[in-house]
Amino acid sequence: MSDRELLEMAAKAAGMKLAWYEWNLSGEWGMIRPDATDGKIWNPLISDGDALRLAVKLFISVNFGYCADDAPIVTCTSDELENSVEHCLAPNFAAQTRRAIVLAAAEIGKAMP
User: Fold this and answer.
1) 3-state secondary structure labels for all residues of 42-69
2) pLDDT digits (tens, 9 = 90+) for 54-113
3) pTM (2 d.p.)
4) What is the four-CA torsion angle of 85, 7, 18, 42, rounded to 10 degrees?
5) Cβ-count burial of 41 within 10 angstroms (0-12 exposed, 13-18 middle, 19+ buried)?
6) CA–CA separation, 17 vs 26, rounded Å?
């Protein structure tokens, strides 16, 4: 699944009505409310705040640990998920934690009608 599809499914899970947005001048991309006047994009793949708000809204629990070969991992769980989402934390712990949250949210969104 592409990053764009992940964001679309995560937004669906959160009940957000967003449109795809690309800002060519700065290279930023993400989603924005069609009626937004502040120009702020929503992209929990690059924004710690957006990722945390997404996890809180969807009651996604974020846990850190190690797998069998002692590699650091993040596990995201929710009552809405059939299976937990497990993601390796290396090399960038913050970026991989955000990605795990978005992956979990996207799984919730995919299961919605």
Assistant:
1) ECCCCCHHHHHHHHHHCCCEEEEEECCC
2) 999 999 999 999 887 888 989 898 888 777 888 887 788 999 999 999 999 999 999 888
3) 0.84
4) 90
5) buried
6) 24
pLDDT at res. 63 = 92
Count of CB atoms situated within 10 Å of the CB of 54: 23
pLDDT at position 40 is 73
Both tokens of 64, joined, read 């850190």
In this predicted structure, what is the pLDDT of residue 9? Answer: 92
Q: Are 93 and 43 in contact (CB under 8 A)?
A: no
Angle, alpha carbons 7-11-13 (nearest 5°): 120
Q: Which position has the token pair 């705040």?
A: 49
SS3 state of residue 101: helix
Q: Classify residue 58 as exposed, middle or buried by CB count within 10 Å of its CB (0-12, 13-18, 19+).
A: buried
